[in-house]
Amino acid sequence: MIAGALSRCDPVGYEVRMIDKLIAVAAWTLLAFIAYATISPIQARPTLFASPSFERLAAFTVLGALFCLAYPRHIVLVCLIVLGSAVLLELAQLLTPDRHGRIQDAIIKMTGGALGIAAGQAMLYFQQANRRFPN
Questions:
Q1: Which of 31, 50, 79, 98 is the most buried (most CB within 10 A)?
Q2: Domain of 59?
């Protein structure tokens, strides 16, 4: 009976699965956008009104949170994707003539990713606690 509670006919269960899929699409889309922004020629790089270090930190914080929410049961894979992409994208900049990969930038990106993963884990924890102990 419990397995049938989240069947396709149940609108609440269906909405939950759709939100999970949308979060996963958002996570992969953001990763693709970050890769484009990181590897594209410097004049084509999108910029905000913040410092580049803050942009890196914020982008990877959101990325870490999205991947954590999209794949809550695969935290090791999430860490590999988020933190690994920070390092790999900095290394990829060494292959482009007008960009430069720096260890400092990779550390900022990895810090943002770790903060995002921690925030995602906290959101999942409080969501689960709220289900166990409703008001």
A1: 31
A2: 7-132
pTM for the predicted model, two decimal places? 0.82
The verdict on residue 107 lying in a domain is yes
CA atoms within 13 A on the CB side of 52: 9
The residues near 98 (Cβ < 8 Å, ≥ 6 apart) are 41, 42
Which of 118, 95, 117, 120 has its CA nearest to residue 35? 95
Counting the structural domains of the chain, the total is 1
Q: What is the pLDDT along the chain (135 residues), one digit of tens a residue?
A: 344 444 444 455 556 678 889 999 999 999 999 999 888 887 777 777 788 899 999 999 999 999 999 999 999 999 999 999 999 999 999 888 878 888 999 999 999 999 999 999 999 999 888 877 776
The closest alpha carbon to 113, from 135, 134, 87, 131, belongs to 87
Q: Which two tokens stand for residue 70?
A: 């999209």
